[in-house]
């Protein structure tokens, strides 16, 4: 059995909340380690494009959790080919997957599939609502 978790970065979460969320997931699930953690990009202001700088603090904390053996592999959600490539080139621990929202595509973009194939990154689909804020209590 493999245990995976998806972390949604919302509001003004700090990168330390990433560690807290992983610890809580392990505790609730009764496991010492998560096989995979997917990080959903933090919300950004309208008109601003998601950049590597938005992801770096969270990714660095996930890398620390991989190094401490709390997580086996880490992945992303909703990155396009350019964003995934930038993260891949920068990261010490490379993403092993990228989820794509079914609402945004029916066919995976060819440039994204080519990049993912070249670097052995799984492309997965999800159907999470775009605006998670309204679902959070």
Automatic annotation (TrEMBL):
Q: Known InterPro entries for this protein?
A: Gclm (IPR032963), NAD(P)_OxRdtase_dom_sf (IPR036812), NADP_OxRdtase_dom (IPR023210)
Give a single Pfam family match: Aldo_ket_red
Asked if the keyword tRNA-binding belongs to this entry, the reply reads: no
Instruction: Write out the entry's keywords from A to Z.
Output: Acetylation, Glutathione biosynthesis, Ligase
Please tell me whether the keyword Ligase is annotated for this protein. Answer: yes
The text of the family note is: Belongs to the aldo/keto reductase family. Glutamate--cysteine ligase light chain subfamily.
* Summary of subunit composition and partner proteins: Heterodimer of a catalytic heavy chain and a regulatory light chain.
Instruction: Tell me the PANTHER family matching this sequence.
Output: GLUTAMATE CYSTEINE LIGASE REGULATORY SUBUNIT, GLUTAMATE--CYSTEINE LIGASE REGULATORY SUBUNIT
Q: Return the protein name.
A: Glutamate--cysteine ligase regulatory subunit
């Amino acid at each position: 059995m493999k245990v995976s978790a998806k972390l949604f970065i919302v509001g003004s979460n700090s990168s330390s909340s990433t560690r807290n969320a992983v610890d809580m997931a392990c505790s609730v699930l009764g496991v010492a380690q998560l096989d995979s953690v997917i990080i959903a990009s933090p919300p950004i202001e309208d008109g601003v494009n998601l950049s590597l700088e938005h992801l770096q603090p969270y990714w660095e904390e996930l890398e620390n959790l991989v190094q401490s053996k709390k997580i086996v592999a880490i992945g992303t959600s909703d990155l396009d080919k350019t964003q995934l490539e930038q993260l891949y080139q920068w990261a010490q621990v490379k993403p092993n997957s990228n989820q794509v929202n079914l609402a945004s595509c029916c066919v995976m973009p060819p440039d994204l599939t080519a990049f993912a194939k070249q670097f052995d990154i799984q492309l997965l689909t999800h159907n999470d609502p775009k605006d998670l804020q309204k679902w959070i209590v």
